[in-house]
Amino acid sequence: MEFLAEDLQQYVEDHTEPESDLLQQINRETHLHVLKPRMLSGHLQGRVLSMLSHMIQPKRILEIGTYTGYASLCLAEGLRPEGKLITIDNNEELSVRTKGYFAKSDFADQIEMKVGNALDIIPTLKENWDLVFIDADKSNYANYFDQVIDQVNIGGYLIADNVLWSGKVFDKTKNDNDTVAIRAFNEKMHVDPRVQNVLFPIRDGLMILRKL
């Protein structure tokens, strides 16, 4: 489901900072060679993530769900010089391609990729996070939030992708497992007293959360 008319989407992208050459390469090659290329953040959302990261100026970023690393590199653009981004994905085969992109980037020394089950890996990370990006299996969004929230610094941010889920979240006839999970996550974030929330209708929806 597209939330913006095609001509409006094109106008928005035409008047948004362009992708870097490496991001263009990732975008192109993901669509050519990788399954489910719609999972890629893409031009507009990538620039939004970069802008938010620059505003936050994080020292530590956690990304849950790497895919081909497009969002990782966008988020890394706002890291402080001494900053670090840790990204987790369970697709070992795809990680070879993704690590290759990271190695080509300006942030090769600041990005660490861990391959495995995020629910197992997160408790082993002894970090406090300034920014967390959740973009993995939808059924565990609430679990990821619960795992990381105590390690997010006061005033830190969490961003969750795909929270509109192609419009299914507000369609009462859609009740598959992922839709139900995202719907429940959105409701949870809306009432959780630990965070301030706003849902941005950008691409497939970004839930922006600030820890209070």
Q: Major sheet: size, sense and barrel closure?
A: 7 strands, mixed
How many domain units? 1
Order of helices and strands: HHHEHEHEHEHEHEE
The CATH architecture name reads: 3-Layer(aba) Sandwich
The third-level CATH topology is Rossmann fold
Oligomer: single chain
| Average of pLDDT | 96
Give a verbal description of the structure:
It is a single chain. The chain is built from eight helices and seven strands. By secondary structure, the protein is α/β, with parallel strands linked by helices. It has a single domain (6-211), classed as Rossmann fold, CATH 3.40.50. The protein has a seven-stranded mixed β-sheet with strand order 3-2-1-4-5-7-6, with helices on both faces. Helix 3 (42-56) packs parallel to helix 4. The N and C termini lie far apart (33 Å). 40% of the residues are buried.
Give the secondary structure arrangement, pairings included.
Elements: H1 6-14, H2 21-33, H3 42-56, E1 60-64, H4 70-76, E2 84-89, H5 92-104, E3 111-115, H6 118-121, E4 129-134, H7 141-148, E5 152-161, H8 177-191, E6 195-200, E7 206-211
